[in-house]
Sequence to fold (930 residues):
Amino acid sequence: MILQRLMQTLTRGARGAAALGLAAALLLDACTGARVAPAERAPELPTLRRADVAWLERVTFGLDTQAVGDYRRLGREHYLEQQLRPTAEDLPTPIAAQAKALESSGVDVAATLKSLQERRKALNALPDGEEKEQARKTLNDEGNRLAYQVIRLQLLRAIYSPAQLREQMVWFWLNHFSVYQYKNDLRWFVGDYEERAIRPYALGNFRDLVLATLEHPAMLQYLDNSQNAAGHVNENYARELMELHTLGVDGGYSQQDVQQLARVLTGVGINAGPAPHLKPEWQALYVRRGAFEFNPARHDFSPKVLLGHPVGGQGFAEVEQAVTLIVRQKACARFISRELATYYVGDAPPPRLIEAMAETFQKSDGDIAATLRTLFLSAEFSAPRNGKFKDPMRYVLSAVRLAYDGRTITNTRPLLDWLNALGEAPYGRQTPDGYPLTAINWESPGQMSRRFEIARAIGTGNAHLFDAEDGGAAAGIGFPQLSSRLYFEAIEPFLAANTRAALAQAASPQEWNTFMLASPEMNYE
Amino acid sequence: MSNPLTRRTMLGLTAGTVASLGITGRLYAAAPQGPRFLLVFLRGGYDATNTLIPYSSGFYYEARPTLAIARPDPQQANGALELDADWALAPALRDSIGPLYQQRQVLFVPFAGTPDLSRSHFETQDSIELGQPPGGTHDYRSGFLGRLHATLDSSPMPAISFTDALPLAFQGPDRIPNISLKSVGKPPFDDRQIRILTDMYAGHPLEPAVASGLELRREVAQSMQTLSEEMRASSRDALSIKGFELEAERIARLMRDNYRIGFVDIGGWDTHVNEGAAQGALASNLTGLGRGLALFAQSLGGEWKNTVVVVISEFGRTFRENGDRGTDHGHGSVYWVLGGSVSGGRIAGAQQRLERANLFQDRDYPVLNDYRAVLGDLFRSLWGLTPAQCTQVFPQSSPGDFKLI
Fold:
């Protein structure tokens, strides 16, 4: 506390971030007794400017020592390249171990579906009563536990993975191709959806991403395409595939196109059991990958015209052809570019930026990393006008990243509780449109005061983030030390006068933390 | 209790900034007289057909072999409660809404709803909350309650949403505060901390949201503390009421003291599977809703005569039950209108006999009473809106004549 006061006094007098950083480092060394000489501490690392911090805050889930260090060491362009093409996952040891231990990380969807079907059958055969209720509860608890483990790992990766941009894009695409955990059996395989349909393509090719989601049982169940068959056409997925996933609502397709695409998609479904018996001419057209199935017996083979183009081919080739046709539309390039720009730059992104991104998207045939490069190196991104208001996920994660800076939490329940309270829990969006990307949905009075309560919970160290999840004893971690070296290098120099005035009135370090985490600087990036 | 002036001073806001920021709630002195309005949105499409039972329709009993509610019968607790020669009330509402109906403080508008035919929860909810003409593109920053509030802006008309996020209905030019009353904890910040936090946002675009959010949080904590003290004093067991009942009592307290326009939503009405009949999933939802509304009426005391509650939902459900002992997304619904001064004890609006030939698309209640006509009529009666003001609230729509008040 004395140290903190001393630093505040010092910073009020001092100007110039380099001098500050050095002073802070010296003080920290004096305090912790770390034997690092100042000369060694500052090997020509450039001082962070406001624009650097704003840039870095956006391509990460918030600042921490590792991100700031990497950025200063590599410079913006190299840092960006590393983020766009991350190699090994490189998680901190405790989290890597947890990731491995998660039972849902290696789920066999077909086997899971089959076993679920059998257990449901057995359950329904039970007479109404205690036993049946208990069996239902057991099944339900299992689903909740599995989905929570998936969310837990998602949150831990988002906080601690050095590949921050990939984690952001995993969130972005999960939201773009949103599924709701409580529909049908989704809790049992949202983990597989995230691991195999989203994560491998998060910075890859957009067409691959669309096809991976199209084939995944989570999407097939969620948007009912598993019910879509010749003679019983279900348009739900066909419509959302164009409206929400690729072209956007004004993307130049008609109700006629929705109906045509729905017919293309007939026979695309799920099969957890043995392959069906098929006529010889259909056998070559049958496709099966895990629980995904294209069944020619359920497919409508009559000719179709989509977006003015005849869809030739036979069977599943029609689906691949249709997806290629759709993702190569200018409307798709623009829609995806606008969504990305809204997520990163803010509501109503500049049309010029969207056009530049859309051009890259089209030229690279849907290369997500290339499109992001255009975005992140653009003048519009580097010189944001008003700052981007953080959505709840970014707010909560950035607060934890700053507060505990690399020290791995053990309990993610409070994070999920906060995200629930703020209305943006992973896999919690009931409707297929995903959570809104615009600020208006997150900045209501009630949501702001909730944020401040979360700021207080984290700032005072009363958030139970270091408790054992099974309710066991808590590790004695105490309240976080926000006024750290990271703070003096990357945050303090750029604080607004009002924020400084608020911090100066803090009556305790815990209160100081609370004000800092509640500040406009923490709510915007 | 601090007086408004010190509160304002403490928040560091002058009277001028308060007005220009459009903060509603305690910062305004609540008008002592005038109407109050609460909109209750049942999300998920509640099964109106098993709530207001068309018991004179033989087709109802054919279409719902396992779900139909038995005809009114004084000997039968499981039977419906007769309201008139055609309609009866679900037994789950017998003890809560039944007495209000006898006192002519409730009326129902069957065949009510929207022209939206998507049968999609989110599209239909959105289109109702926006209240804009069907077709064309929607302006997601303009909901009908937001426009109502703006229309009434000449007199102080504090509005509030009892939800975690601000609903579309309240989007608009004025900053409407929101707070969920499902659970209410201790106030997280003291007055000094509230002042510091608010000052930190002085001049910032979020200043109004921050100021009203913090102020509301404190106001709710104070109000709820008084409420629980009163309950203790009257030896009522706070734990015996829960769910929406508890929420409704809190809403009543806040509205009685400070607010004129309120919104709350209740989920869990999407009964595709195992809906139940006299007992079961729908019945227990209705029991909570009915008890909550009755307690809301009681808690308002003398103010109930100035208050109107309207219960709506995005759509009704299929007239026939499905293969899973449930019902699927339908079209027309039944709206409830409650209040100390409503022209209740009757079934209002255009009606049709319920026969197969009269079903919409051979599956649903038709919509004969557009939601904008119903609500527009109510707003006109409550606040004396001019036709031009009615059009501001619901563009390209005219109020009906339902004689609700």
Remarks:
- The longest strand of chain A covers residues 268-270.
- Residues 1-39 of chain A have pLDDT under 50 and may be disordered.
